[in-house]
Design brief:
By secondary structure, this protein is mainly β. The chain has a domain of 50 residues. It is built from one helix and three strands. The chain has a three-stranded mixed beta sheet with strand order 2-1-3, with no helix packed on it. It is globular and about 40 Å long. The protein starts with 36 loop residues before the first strand and ends with a strand. 2% of the residues are buried.
């Protein structure tokens, strides 16, 4: 779960994440309880480079990781903090 870091700590190691592909639920289906999540972008490096592809993402971008957080509208908070995962 996302939480605030300690003072003057800019980078915190993330746990190893196992990526398992699953079928997305179809519109109208209900699957379990919805949990507030932040879509953290995952990047190959911390450098701000990459060629913009036809999808609108940089070639440095890998995927979004859905990380649980406390409130539904916390995305704005974490975006302002610049939360991302580096490979």
């Amino acid at each position: 779960m996302l939480d605030e870091s300690d003072d003057k700590i800019l980078f915190v190691p993330a746990p190893i994440i196992m990526v398992i592909p699953v079928r997305m639920k179809k519109e109208g289906e209900e699957v379990g309880v919805e949990v507030a999540r932040y879509d953290a972008p995952c990047y190959r490096t911390s450098e701000r480079w990459g060629i913009l592809s036809t999808t609108g993402h940089s070639t440095n971008f890998i995927m979004y990781a859905k990380i649980p957080c406390e409130s539904k509208n916390a995305s704005v908070h974490w975006i302002k903090r610049g939360v991302a995962i580096l490979n």
